[in-house]
Every structure is written in C-alpha cells, then in structure tokens.
C-alpha cells in the first residue's frame, strides 16, 4: 500500500468551536497528499498551540523519525534543532500577533539526506468561520543549489526578513545589500536568482500580499491599510495593487465578501515580464 501522509485520525466533529477547528485542520491536512512524493517540499499543518497535526513523508525523513507518531502532537522545539525551532516559533508568533500570512522567508532546514541547507517558507493562518485561529499551514521549498554554492547565508536571510515581514518600514536596496554584506548589484543578482524577481518587486509583492490579507480581515479604511503595508498613502496602494493584482483594492474587497470565510486568499501577484 502506498504511504499516506499522516493525518490525525481521532478528530472530534462536534458542532461547536473545537469541533469546527478539528474539522478545518483535517481539511487542510488533506492537502499534504499533493506534496507526497514531490521532491524538495516540506508540508506541515499545526494546531493553534503549534503541535504538528499532519505532515508529508519528507518531514519524517528530514528529522529522522521512525514513524509518524514520533512527530504527531509535538512542537517544533521537540522535533527540529534548536536554532531552526527558535526561528520557526518566532515566525508563528509573528503570524499569530499580526494575523497575516508569511511568504518568501529564507529559513535554515534539514534536507532528506541529513544535510543542513536553506529553503523558502510560506505560512498561512487557518481560521474557522467564527474568526478563531484553528492552526497554521506551512509549506517550504528547498534551495539546494543556493545552499551548496554559498548563495544563501544568515546575513542574506536577515535582509530578506526585512523585505518580507517588515514591509511597512522604509526600505532602501542599498541598506539591505549592506546588511547582507553585498554590493547593490550582487544583492539584486542573488534575489533574482532565488525569487526570479528584483528586490524592489519582492518588497512590493510582500506589501500587496499583506494588503490582500488586511482587506480580507476587516473593514479598515484604505488609508490605514496603506500605512500598515508601507505604501504611505491610499493612492499609491491603489496604483500598485492594480498593477499587481489586476483590480483595485475596493473591488478586491467586494470579491472577498463573496468567498467562504475559512478559505485562504487565492489571488496571487502576476508580474509584468
């Protein structure tokens, strides 16, 4: 029998908040099946307390677990090396506090052969229809070439952190390059190699994605959302949002109102070539 991604099988489907959270996590866990057998991807669903609910086979191989039960119900601190677990937990706390997804972070990881390396990580908060956090969905893609040729290091990861989770700040490419220990041209070349876009577009993508999440979350005025995302005024937000998403923020908000509340935002930026 083919291996099936581990999914907690003792879930309570009572028609109350706890039951709906369990059902929602179970639904998210089914997606792990899409990533089983796809090399270079790690997929995890955690509950709101950070305990692993489901994961693909790649995660089991990376942490050298003998069976899924060695991981299920445990936290990152009980599974991963200390420096990696601390970073993963910091991400989760940022996500919970800001109520925003995380995209494009560079993270240290273990590959399935046991070698340490780097990956690109995305994390999504999972909410039930009441608005309560049910858990966190995590997806990571390995970057073995960047890890082995020295393209990625901690300095570069720290600079990328500023671009993808401190997007509300005033960011200058020269300052980010200096933080990474690179010239501006070297920094731009590395970001393009990893992400396929320029540093300026990576910052813009982070800001627009955050705006998408904020438009979904509440009815805050566009001027407030613009400031939270580093656009400084709603006119700039509207222009850049139109460029990236293909519609304006108000129309996007109206579209969101027609979508189920517990699903993930599915619109992704489309970049001019």
TrEMBL record:
Signal peptide: none annotated. Pfam families: HTH_18, PAS_4. SMART domains: HTH_ARAC. Gene3D superfamilies: Homeodomain-like, PAS domain. Keywords: DNA-binding, Transcription, Transcription regulation. Residues 157-255 form the HTH araC/xylS-type domain. PANTHER family: HTH-TYPE TRANSCRIPTIONAL ACTIVATOR RHAS, HTH-TYPE TRANSCRIPTIONAL ACTIVATOR RHAS-RELATED. This is AraC family transcriptional regulator. The lineage of its organism: Bacteria, Pseudomonadati, Pseudomonadota, Betaproteobacteria, Neisseriales.
């Amino acid at each position: 029998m083919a291996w099936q991604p581990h999914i907690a099988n003792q879930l309570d489907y009572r028609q109350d908040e706890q039951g709906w959270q369990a059902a929602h996590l179970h639904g998210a866990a089914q997606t792990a099946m899409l990533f089983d057998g796809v090399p270079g991807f790690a997929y995890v669903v955690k509950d709101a307390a950070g305990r692993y609910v489901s994961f693909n086979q790649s995660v089991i191989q990376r942490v050298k677990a003998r069976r899924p039960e060695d991981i299920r119900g445990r936290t990152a601190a009980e599974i991963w090396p200390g420096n990696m677990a601390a970073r993963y937990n910091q991400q989760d706390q940022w996500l919970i506090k800001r109520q925003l997804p995380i995209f494009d972070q560079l993270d240290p990881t273990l590959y399935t052969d046991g070698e340490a390396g780097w990956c690109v990580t995305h994390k999504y908060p999972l909410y039930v229809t009441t608005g309560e956090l049910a858990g966190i969905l995590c997806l990571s893609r390995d970057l073995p070439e960047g890890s082995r040729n020295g393209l990625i290091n901690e300095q570069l990861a720290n600079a990328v952190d500023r671009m993808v989770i401190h997007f509300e700040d005033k960011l200058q490419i020269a300052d980010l390059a200096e933080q990474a220990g690179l010239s501006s041209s070297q920094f731009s070349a590395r970001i393009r190699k990893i992400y396929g876009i320029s540093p300026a577009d990576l910052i813009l993508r982070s800001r627009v994605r955050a705006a998408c999440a904020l438009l979904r979350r509440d009815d805050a005025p566009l001027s407030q959302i613009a400031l939270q995302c580093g656009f400084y005024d709603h006119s700039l937000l509207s222009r850049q949002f139109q460029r990236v998403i293909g519609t304006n923020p108000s129309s996007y908000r109206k579209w969101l109102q027609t979508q189920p509340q517990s699903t993930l935002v599915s619109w992704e930026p489309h970049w001019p070539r």
